[in-house]
Amino acid sequence: MPVVLVMISGWVQPGQYFLPITAAVGAVLGHNYTCWLRFKGGKGIATSAGALLALMPWPTLVALAVFLAAFLTTRYVSVGAISANLALPTAAWFIYRGKPGHMTLFGTALFLGLLAVWKHKENIQRLLKGTENRFGPKKNASSR
Fold this sequence. Notes:
Helices cover 71% and strands 0% of the residues. It is mainly α.
């Protein structure tokens, strides 16, 4: 749904970024801090991906590639998500450098990327402690 919202807002104001960025950031903040859940919610990864795919498709695809590489290497979804959200602003910087709205798109990618990393703070703590769950089949005691 965020993809549609961001796309429609882009059609309302072609060539301008205010409405699409507001729609993207609003969708992510609304997901992360849902008012009827006492301002608690998810980490906003899928919502961010959908909104950013419509807003800045190439940096989002680069971030997706980074996610897949990190996830397939480590088998930690959180490592993939954190890596992708750190790669997103870098990709936006290089892909949109010198184009109109460059700093606005970079700033949006930086804000949403850092917000996603912040929402993963508990995952980061578990990674540092070695207690984060990996994706895939569990090893049982008899196979060690």
